[in-house]
Amino acid sequence: MDSNRQGGIRKRRAPKxxxxxxxxxxxxxxxxxxxxxxxxxxxxxxRKLRExxxxxxxxxxxxxxxxxxxxxxxxxxxxxxxxxxSDLLRRGYGARRVNQALGQxxxxxxxRSQMRPGDAAKRQAAVRLAQRRRFGPFAIEAPDKExxxxxxxxxxxxxxxxxxxxxxxxxxSERAVEQWISEAExxxxxxxx
Length: 193
Prior knowledge:
Blueprint: E1 5-6, E2 9-10, H1 20-33, H2 38-52, H3 62-72, H4 77-90, H5 95-104, H6 109-114, H7 119-133, H8 145-157, H9 162-169, H10 174-186
Antiparallel strand pairs: 1-2
């Protein structure tokens, strides 16, 4: 029997403590694999340091390492925020959920305010959610009062305003929804403000 096994359970080796070079390697690997923000990268590196420890006497300067990656362009909060906001809107999430997701990712308020969707984008996202979930004019049959309330609640949880949820759910036809969207587009309200 293998000496590393005891009662059928394999012993796990303790991970090797991180050095300055291995910490930078981890950061580079993470930034290369994932779209990330400076705050997310910093949290990742702090977690790795807690898990694996540090081999030197002086503690690493994680914020300085993250700043170096930002300076080199490996990490860009604005690019991340634009991509994430566009993705969430395309999937049918509303402005509140977009702002919440960017906040959790550590994007600062100034960048988050730049990524706030315009009225046309908010309306398109509400319609996408209704299409996906078969709400309002996209439903096979008209919902009863209880089901309609659940649909409104689902749209509110997805980050849409009550007015947009009602406008979509109360629309008499898909054509009416298209007109509702085109009204906002005609006002020149583009994707991000």
